[in-house]
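Retro notes, item 3 of 5
We never archived the inputs for the fe (ii) ion complex last cycle. Fixing that now. Sequence and ligand:
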Amino acid sequence: MNKKSIPFSDREHLGVNEIIAYLTEIERLVKMGKNTFRKQLIRLTSLVDKKIPYRDGHSIRVASISREIAYYMKLSKQEQFNIEISALLHDFGKIAIEEQVLEKSANLSEEDWIEIKMHPTRGYFIVQGFTFLKETLPGIRWHHERYNGNGYPDGLKKNEIPLMARIIAVADAFDAMIQKRPYKEKILIQPAKKIIKDNSNILFERNIVTAFLSIPYKKISQIFKEDF
Ligand SMILES: [Fe+2]
Ligand SMILES: [Fe+2]
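Structure as it came back at the time:
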């Protein structure tokens, strides 16, 4: 796929239809035996992140951290890859949410919350038709579930939540804490790590937190400074 074949790259609009068109094109290439879809998905994710207010680079960082966690959990190379790809796609469902809702994020009404809480399921339905992405679906649908059952959309708890989603949940929460938002100051890396640690076996699974805390500081700061 060259730059010219990307239908929306130079346009302002990027919606669900454009994402589906792009994924269809990647699937066509995968079917032709070109198995290098990671780079193309990183490119698509960068564009999607730019469209979601205050989320620039979020999914790319979450993908890198998730892959590191999977590495320190000694998961197979294939699992590490699937987790990284799932994390790249985890917030695609936000593309369908009204921009005003995402922009305010502070005083959300009940309707706004219902809208936001639908993004994992929306993302799941955007991606589910693509066979080459089928292994990534659990991370997309369940990354907002919490270990104690207080998450959404399905209120799963402990091992009911697929491993991939439990891993992405830690990386996602960490990145959200580190980033500044209009309604909150950013938290530094060490205090953010402590909040994750304090929520071991409450919001996040202990083994995953341990693996997350094993990622060297240098690696984390590299992920947060890297220009993708
Ligand atoms: Fe999300
Ligand atoms: Fe996210």
